[in-house]
Design brief:
Shape: elongated
CATH topology of the largest domain: Rossmann fold
Radius of gyration: 23 Å
Oligomer: single chain
Helix content: 25-40%
CATH class of the largest domain: Alpha Beta
CATH architecture of the largest domain: 3-Layer(aba) Sandwich
């Protein structure tokens, strides 16, 4: 069925007031979206930051009296209304619309990420089945792209792999499909570990080839190849621990790093690794190297 949508241009300080007021006058849903494509990186723990210029979207039943909404909202908030727009939007098959936006994606020369509803474009290639839109990493972000391209170019036969901050397991599973005999994943989020197990099973990976652990349970291991696609701050803070997980002569790839953060991350690893030139994609970077 169609809906009546109210869009308000608000500041973060106004968010709670207008969310409560809109729900009180009958909104069936309230969501926030970035008004200016402004990224938010590394928020403070236990905070949910909003953009400095935020759009609040509220949906009402189609038969709602649009002329009464804004006066009622102004009465509830007791303030001059921010810039706003009201429109009628038609219903659609949102799931089908979402699915049509995602096609198989190629990384490097051999590797494809293929959504479950698509046939593999190259059946004989290395095809990793993973649905974009799932939590914890699906290949659509530049940092995951950079790591997948790097893995595709590595000789992984006879190499052990460790995925530090494994999320969906996409990097470890890609390494296994590309020839690594085994991989280990670790993440601070138990749901990420469950997602990794599910995705490994979907791709026919024997659980014994890909055990996953919370950090406190991670065995003392060193791997031939370590990938860590997290954030620059943790990569710097955890540099001694991550370094210790790489065998001498082993290879390391780091991402989740903005271009302006690259030098700080490189400096944290330069004493122990012969670092490659920094790879960049859409303002994000990958730092890789070989442990001395």
């Amino acid at each position: 069925m169609p809906w009546l949508q109210v869009r308000l241009a608000i500041t973060p300080e106004q968010a709670e007031t207008y969310e409560d007021a809109l729900l009180e006058i009958g909104a069936v849903s309230v969501t926030f979206m970035d008004a200016e494509d402004q990224p938010i990186f590394e928020p403070e723990l236990n905070t949910t930051p909003l953009w400095s210029h935020t759009h609040l979207l509220a949906l009402f039943e189609a038969d709602t009296d649009a002329t009464a909404l804004m006066p009622h909202l102004q009465l509830l908030t007791g303030a001059e209304l921010p810039e706003h727009h009201i429109e009628r939007i038609e219903d659609q098959d949102w799931e089908r619309s979402w699915m049509e936006n995602f096609q198989p994606m190629r990384f490097g020369k051999r590797l494809w990420i293929v959504p479950s509803w698509h046939a593999a474009p190259e059946p004989d290639a290395v095809n990793l089945l993973l649905d974009p839109g799932l939590a914890f990493g699906t290949g659509t972000h530049p940092t995951t792209d950079l790591c997948l391209q790097w893995l595709d170019g590595q000789p992984l036969e006879n190499c052990s792999v460790l995925d530090f901050g494994c999320g969906s397991g996409i990097l470890a599973i890609a390494a296994l499909l590309l020839g690594a005999p085994n991989a280990v994943g670790t993440d601070i989020d138990p749901q990420a570990l469950e997602a990794s197990r599910d995705n490994a099973g979907r791709n026919g990976i024997d659980p014994q080839r890909f055990p996953v652990y919370l950090p406190a349970d991670l065995p003392q291991v060193q791997a031939d190849v370590v990938v860590a696609n997290i954030l620059a701050g943790p990569l710097v803070a955890l540099a001694p621990q991550i370094t210790s997980l790489v065998k001498p002569g082993g290879r390391l790839a780091l991402s989740g790093i903005l271009a302006e953060q690259a030098e700080d991350v490189r400096a944290a690893y330069a004493d122990n690794f012969d670092l490659d030139p920094t790879a960049t994609l859409d303002g994000w970077v990958r730092i890789s190297g070989v442990r001395r």
